[in-house]
Design a protein that fits this description.
Blueprint: E1 3-7, H1 10-21, E2 29-33, H2 40-50, E3 65-69, E4 80-85, H3 92-97, H4 100-105, E5 109-113, E6 127-133, E7 140-146
Parallel strand pairs: 2-5, 2-6, 4-5
Antiparallel strand pairs: 1-7, 3-4, 6-7
Bound molecules: adenosine-5'-diphosphate and magnesium ion.
Amino acid sequence: MKGFYEVDSVEETWAVAAELAKELRPGDVVCLEGDLGAGKTTFTQGLAAALGVPGRVTSPTFCIVQEHDARERREGRPSLLVHMDLYRLGGEEDVEDIGWEDYLSRGAVIVVEWPQRAGSLVPASAWHVGFHMQKGEENRKITIDSGRLIRV
Ligand SMILES: Nc1ncnc2c1ncn2[C@@H]1O[C@H](COP(=O)(O)OP(=O)(O)O)[C@@H](O)[C@H]1O
Ligand SMILES: [Mg+2]
């Protein structure tokens, strides 16, 4: 999945996320890039619902990392969605300390807001989802890219 999507509601953002969720594999990293209020956490709610996470996904801004069990235990599918908001962290060392590598080796998917803080920990194969908005409007332009597609 790669491309450009224009959405006009939260529900449409969830629908784009659900499409991406189908492609996620254990150990994937999804970087969410965009301004405050652009829809990063909302998109994560859509990913979580599509992966069978029960309940509501809220912003991890104050707790940095939240783990969500994916109940849909199918072969080759991620069993854990780890939602991080690195806004308050200093850099790579802090990100390592919260168990980045550990999560990936356990087969989780890491969905990360403010991924710049993770620096070189972000693998070349990561998904990049960008959000663009005009303040006060529900319209969002969402771009999805995967490093995996440029690898041979
Ligand atoms: N199309 C849309 N997609 C996502 N969020 C939207 C959309 N239209 C309006 N919103 C609103 O914008 C806000 C996005 O907030 P949030 O997902 O927490 O952003 P971020 O995590 O990027 O700071 C929410 O209040 C949501 O209801
Ligand atoms: Mg957020």
